[in-house]
Sequence to fold (186 residues):
Amino acid sequence: MEKLADYSGDLRPDLRMEDFSSEALVRLWRAAGLLYVGVSSIYYTVIREKLGEDMAREIDAEMWKREAPLEMRRMAEAMNIRGNNVEALLKTLQVDIGGGPIWPEFRCELNNKNHGYLYIKRCRGLDYWARHKEKAMQEHGCYLDVVGFQHAADCFNPKIKARALKLPPTKGPDENVCEWEFKLEE
Fold:
């Protein structure tokens, strides 16, 4: 049976995700990633409106700290990524619903299995917050990445250190919005 490019046809009572083409599944993955960042922004805004900026930042940071182990584990298991090194961490970030769909332009480099880099050229969250003139959300999003990448690294090995090499703002559209180093420290 031919794979479905989309779901524009009739209802299939026994539909399975395996019925879709890889291109359709990638579109769905990207849509889920946008939803992921959208829900995050909405609940943060609601908390900020009800409890103020400081409390919203505190609650949001705690939520992501608790969420990181679940997200990293589920993504790694889904893609059969094994290991407790930087390579496993970077591979998981590449396929993570909170990574790839949100960073339409990014790349990873490995010096070796325990030392690597993540370069993010574009971030949909930053683009969205800039369009809506949400400077506080832009700053908070970058703060969350600083602590969040360390939480993600800790899920693989607490000896992996995440370090921001560059954070926004950028000097122009050709510059990476952020750059990260991940290194297993003995």
User: Anything to note?
Assistant: The chain has a mean pLDDT of 91. The chain has five helices and four strands.
